[in-house]
Structures are given as structure tokens and as C-alpha cells.
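Pipeline run #58 for the internal structure catalog. This entry was flagged by the ingest filter as a single-chain record with no existing model, so it goes straight to prediction. Upstream metadata was stripped on purpose; only the residue string is passed forward. Reviewer on rotation: M.T. Logging verbosity set to normal.
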Amino acid sequence: MNQDEGLNCNPVQHLEFYNINLNAWCKVNGFDMPSPRSFFAGEILDECKLHLFGGFNGEEFSLKCQKFDLMSGEWSDLPQMAKERVDRCYASATEMDGEIYVSGGHHKRAQNKARSVEKFNPVVNAWSQVPNLTSARCEAALVNLNGCLYVIGGFDGVAVLSSVEKLEPDSRWTFSARMIRQRSGLGAVALPGCILVFGGHDGFQRLADGEKFNPDSETWTLLAPMVQARSNFGIASIGRLVFAVGGYGGPEPGQPLAEVEAYDPSIDKWFPVEKMLSPRSGLIACVADNLQLALKVWGTEERKGCVLLTSSLEKDSHQQEHAGGLSTPMLDPLPNGWLQNNTNENA
């Protein structure tokens, strides 16, 4: 994706919540970000504490690091990253052992891609340095599998990457097996024994297909495509399912999506689920698996599943009606009880 394309849209402040039991989205009063923001890195800790790093506020890149407590509805500032005290956008984040790792990204002032990796410890409220990546990259995916970090794909300023780097404990980054396709703005999740990646942009077009990585054999295999090709979208796994949320993918350049899909790895198939209330891209998707949060958001006594949280970027409001009418292929309708059965924590 042309990064300037993403920075021509208008960041927003509001969050949206998805209730699996109702297959419905909502906005919650008082749960807005302090200021508009997009293309940030983010992760959730302790089931209800959302952490955001860097991003774009509509005019300039940001170096802000902030925490949002979903139970109290309060935002607080966090220390700035120690190694790169400059604005950062298009970075990647993941959690491992109670700490959040942030890798790569793009520095607007320096006009370069970052190799740096840092980790944030919420107990001491401080950052520490991690060995640099071998290759500078932004718009990559960062996941934790079996106690190892994997940085996947991205853009180095010249080319879209298929390369993958792996960091084992007390070691340095080494290259792992390349993906079958080069991808930036991709989505990735770690499931037991494997990593799944989907979508992205290969430098020529947005992608719909996915790949599965087996760490034992160091091999990638292709997976079924999403209904909608997309890049710079939110992705999260709940139970046995993987959700792809929003992103770029409309028929016009730079048009964000409201469409949401759910993937069942057991049958290698995607199903469309309820759209978001607003089309948006440059977002993150997190899982807030907290009963009290579900009660607070919905005020109902139904069985609670997980709550999917997203936030970020949408076109001007007049685009919403058009985006909601996109002509996209539809897969089979959702089987009765399929969402609930496959996202139950005991599944």
C-alpha cells in the first residue's frame, strides 16, 4: 500500500465493541480516545488494559504511549519509548510473558524505517531495549509463538517483504522461512502450534489469501482466501476463530471497509459476520475477555463470550453509506450457533 494513501484519511476517536453472542457492534459513551489516532501499535494486558503506542493524528506522526483501563474508562500516559524518542507510525506490537514488545515502524521526521525493538514492563512502568531487527521494516506483523517472537513481512522503504525474523530467548534475531508471498499491512495471529497470516499488499494489489506457518518443519502452506481482499486491518483470535476487521479494500483507492469476517481453521473457510458501524482502517483488534466488561457494555444477563475491541481510521462520514453498499461475494450463511460454539473459552 502507498503509505501516503493511508495518511490522507481522517483518524477518529471512538472505539467499537463487538458482542459475539448477539453478532452486533456498538459504541460506548465515554470510551473515546483522548484525540483522533490511527496506524498505532497496540496490545491489551490483564484482559482490560489497552496499551497504544505511536500512530498518526491526522496531521503528524505521534510518539505518545497511552493506557486505557476498560473497567474504569480512564486514559493515562505512559513513558515514551527509550530508544527512539521520535514519532513513530506503522509499528507492530505483541504480548509475551506480561510485557509488550514493539518493533519496527516508520519515522516521519527521519523518513526512514526502524530496526529497533523495545519491550514495556507494566509492573515497573518502564521500557527496555531488545536486540534490533536484522532488516528495518514497517507495516509488518509481530506475534509470539512458543516463547519466540516472529516479525513477518512488511515494507523496508524499497520493497514489500516476504522475509520472517525470529527472536529466541536470550538470543538475536535470525531469519526463518520466508512466506510464499510478499506482504505488507498483513494480519497475523498465533494459534497453538502455528502462525496464520492473511491479506496485506504485495506492492501491486491487495491480497485475500492466507498462509499457515509450521515452526517444526519451517514451512508455509496456502490457506483459503478471505471474502474481501484487505490490508491494514485488525485481526484477533477468539476461541477457535480468527476475525478480520475493516482495513483497506474498497473499489476506490484508499477506501476503508466496514466488513468483518470470521475464519474457522478446522474447515479452512471464512464467513461474513456483522459489519462495523463505521468503515475504518489502520486499526487494531483486541480481545477483552472479561465478564464485568461485557456486563458494563451490554447490561444484559446473556451468556458472555469475548468482546472484540477495535479503533482507528475512517473516511469522512459521507463515505459510510457507500461503503456499506459494496458489492462483495458472500459465502455460506452463518450456521446456527456457530459463533458461540467456536468462541466459547472451553471449546
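catalog note: Confidence is low (pLDDT under 50) at residues 294-306, 315-333.
catalog note: The chain is about 5% helix and 40% strand.
status: ready for reviewer M.T.
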